[in-house]
Structures are given as structure tokens and as C-alpha cells.
Amino acid sequence: MKIQSLSSQELMKICDRYFLTAEELAPQTETKRPPRNRDQVKYVEAHNELWNRGAEVRDWARGLLTHVDYDAREAGAGLLGSLGGRRLLGESEDKVITELGQLIQRPMEEDSKEMQAVDVAILALSEIGNAEGIKYLRWILFSTRPEHTGDTQWTAAEALAKMVKQPFLRSKDPVEAARDWLRTHPDT
Fold first, then answer.
1. Domain boundaries along the sequence of the chain
2. Which residue among 18, 40, 99, 148 is least enclosed by CB atoms within 10 Å?
3. Sign of the dihedral through C-alpha 84, 67, 75, 39
């Protein structure tokens, strides 16, 4: 059966089966079984097909933003960015921006893999393009958390550049150029 012939609900179920549970993510003990074998190929096919779908995946993707598995959070943020870029968030747009902001501000629990979900959430804000998302980019750009320095702040500068149509990326220090712009636009 071709993946394209599956309903959005069926595709979401394939993805849900791939994401790890809280129990599977907990530290392993001698009495606990290791995580189950996951079908990554089937997941990737289903996830990629969901990017072609419409607003019917919105609420499911929103729910992924708080999932225990960072792969799920990353998938949800990416799908919401895609929907936002196609103007398919509807009346939920403001709520989605807030939820992406909460993901961006979430404390790190594990390792740098979690930052992938944050980076995708940052880019999702730029795809949505709503100025309400700038406050979360501002938060990242001025963050002193070690996990935000470097690539994540560069991603925030890239997202801000797209949203406000400024050439931060052409400067010697895009992050500082974005910060300077924010300093001169405090109400943004």
C-alpha cells in the first residue's frame, strides 16, 4: 500500500507508534527492557506525507509540542511551521505561536538533541511570520543559557531576518546584528 493513499489519521498513528513513551525514555535498569525496535523508514515516510496534508493535522501537531520524545516535539514544530507558511493555522495561529514559544523556552532535560526541536520551533515562527513570535526570538537572542549560544541564536537571527526583512545574515556577526536591531525596536 502506498503511503500517499493512507488517511491523515492513519499517518498520524504510524508516527505515534514511532515516538518513545516516558517509560521508554527513563533510564534503563536491569529489570527494565530496552526500548522497542522502531520502524524509522515507515515513520519518515508517514511524517513526510503529513507535510503534504492540510489543517487536519494541526491539532495533532500542536499536541506533539509537549510530547516526552524530542523527535515528536521536532515533528510537531516542523508541521506547524509548514501549516503556518501555507496559512492553514486558522483561528489557532496565536495559540500555536504561544505553544511554540513555550517549547523554545523549555529547559533542557537531556542533551543537544533536544535543541533540534527548539531550532525547528524557531524556524516555524519565521514560517508563520506573525510579529507575535518576535518576543520568543528576542528571548533566545538575549539568552545566557549555554545551550542557546551558537547555532540556536544564529537560527533565531535567521528567523528574525526573514520576519523583519533585514540582512542580518550578511553582517560579520548575524546574532549581534539581530540584537542591535531588537535594541532599536524595543516594541517589536
1. 54-184
2. 40
3. negative
